[in-house]
Amino acid sequence: MSNSSAVVVEGKKRGIGRILRPIRGQLTAAALLSAVGAMLTLVPLAGFAHIATKITLDTAMGISLTGEIWRVVAISLGSLFAGVIMVSAGELVAHLADNRITYHLRQAVAQRLARVPLGWFTAQSSGDVKQAMQDDIAILHSLTAHFYTAVGRALGAICISVVYMFALDWRMAIATLLPFIGFILFLRRAMKTGDASMTALAARMGQINSATVEFIGGIAEVKAFGAAGRAHKGFHEAVDGFARAFVSATRPLVTSMAHAHAMVAPVTVLGVVLVFGVLFINLGWIEPLDILPFVLVAPSICAPLLLLHTLLHDLSGATDAAKRVLALMETPVLESVPSSQYQHPRSYDVRFNDVSYGYSDGHAVLSNISFTLKPGTVTAIVGASGAGKSTLARMLLRFFDPDEGHITLGGVDLRCIETEKLYRYIGFVLQEVQLIHASVRDNLALGCPSASQQEIENATRIANIHERILALPRGYDSVIGEDAQLSGGERQRLCIARAILLDPPVLVLDEATASADAGNELAIQKALSHFAEGRSLMVIAHRLDTIKHADRILVLEDGRIAEEGTHPQLLDLKGRYADLWLKGNYECCQSSTPLEGASC
Ligand code: ADP
């Protein structure tokens, strides 16, 4: 298709930065608050080192330290308190920002989806929406509410510790940082090994998948012919191959990661501080007590550094989630004129003007379709499966817009009619019955919320479903899927009642009896024939006996109108329709209650 020709694609720039743009200021403030807060919470460590040094040196010289100790304790406690407050404030700001962006994203996705063509909503796209609206937004929550503050805290703690150590003694500071440099080097090696191993593992996983599909696909034959042993062989080989590849891939990775973690274990850091401390004391560069601040502060870098590593690792998941949400927000939308240019149809005749359409480029499903649906008449569309009947019906409902040509209602292009109004003019009962998780009454009044109980009941009586609704535990208040468990045919009659309540001048019925059982079919056909009177009907049927009284029958073949006329005219032609009729008559002779009456 080119959906592309019928849609407006807005915005191409992708990335997490775009998603977070509205709350960038708040996130920066949260990260800064957390960083400064984390710095302040480390002040007591320096205070403790200071007190310990002073007590050891000055008490030995008989100097009283009471005043200074209290001052340092007060500063330490004050800093700790202020630090905790700032970290909490950072968390609060980040959570408020998260709340804002989550609301904004959900609104933006919902507004976007309200404008995409109905044909976009398939099982696959529903899965994408669920993934983006629930899972991905939850992943983004961990990014917005926790990532920036955690990074702020980790960087704040690391920076203040490093600055503090360099301020005390640059030689000891450099020596203390050696294990952390080792950590980064081992981590880089682990990541390089990991990238290479993942490619090999993905290839092995592909082999397992193919072997599994092959094995499952042929299981019946394999068992029937007693060749299970041979069929298992390929599968076992693939599984063994994966296990071997897994061991050889993970061994160097695990080794590098173990080395990296060993580097930043507090005991390693303490060991390095002590070894270099003793060395520097022997060299006469520092005094024994000078080691104390390093012993206290250096291990406190380990946890933030590991946290930083985990956070950066998780960032790729959040980036993918952001890309999926953005993709949803950029879903192509239906092309419509500005609301000031909306028009009202002057009558209710529907005209297809040279309409062509294809789901994918280069493959037309409908080609040069032209016909008129006159008010008060029934037009039936017939043809073999895959001929394009449902696509034709869906074009009238703007599930998709034509690639070429146009469709008018009362002389107005469908694109110039407000979408909500369009569904007041054109009602539909489709093959796939869609009911929402709400009461039966709400489902019936979906397009007509102001309908009175009397109007609703009139519609359900015509659709032959009133008695069945009354038999439900809570009648019209029963909730679909909870205490209203309805069969396929009953659900379809509910949809018919919904269409009747809307009272549209044009009605599209796409295989409306498709999911009906033999008993229900009679009821559905009766309901439809009552309702059809005086309206323009477009009926898509695979059973010809239901439409033989139609005013006009269009025979579709490979997306083109191959024949058209009334039932007797088409039979006389002895062409495609006559062939189908013979076949159709044979298929449906067991049960048939034609859509007689309509307007024929
Ligand atoms: P009919 O109703 O006559 O059985 P359809 O209109 O359902 O035919 O389908 C016509 C052709 O379009 C078929 O080849 C079908 O595979 C294809 N088709 C239908 N729906 C889609 C879709 N959503 N995406 C891609 N191809 C589709």
Automatic annotation (TrEMBL):
Domain ABC transporter: 350-583
Sequence ranges assigned to domain ABC transmembrane type-1 in this UniProt record: 29-317
InterPro entries found in the cross-reference section: AAA+_ATPase (IPR003593), ABC1_TM_dom (IPR011527), ABC1_TM_sf (IPR036640), ABC_transporter-like_ATP-bd (IPR003439), ABC_transporter-like_CS (IPR017871), P-loop_NTPase (IPR027417), Type_1_exporter (IPR039421)
GO cellular component labels: plasma membrane
Transmembrane segments: 27-49, 69-97, 147-166, 172-188, 263-285, 291-312
Chief place of localization: membrane
Domain of life the protein comes from: Bacteria
Family annotation (CDD domains): ABC_6TM_exporters
Record's keyword terms, sorted: ATP-binding, Cell membrane, Membrane, Nucleotide-binding, Transmembrane, Transmembrane helix, Transport
Pfam name, any one: ABC_tran
Subcellular location: Cell membrane
Gene3D superfamilies (alphabetical): ABC transporter type 1, transmembrane domain, P-loop containing nucleotide triphosphate hydrolases
Membrane topology: Multi-pass membrane protein
GO terms for MF: ABC-type transporter activity; ATP binding; ATP hydrolysis activity
PANTHER family: ATP-BINDING CASSETTE SUB-FAMILY B (PTHR24221), ATP-BINDING CASSETTE SUB-FAMILY B MEMBER 6 (PTHR24221:SF654)
Name of the protein in its database record: ABC transporter ATP-binding protein
Organism name: Oceanospirillum linum
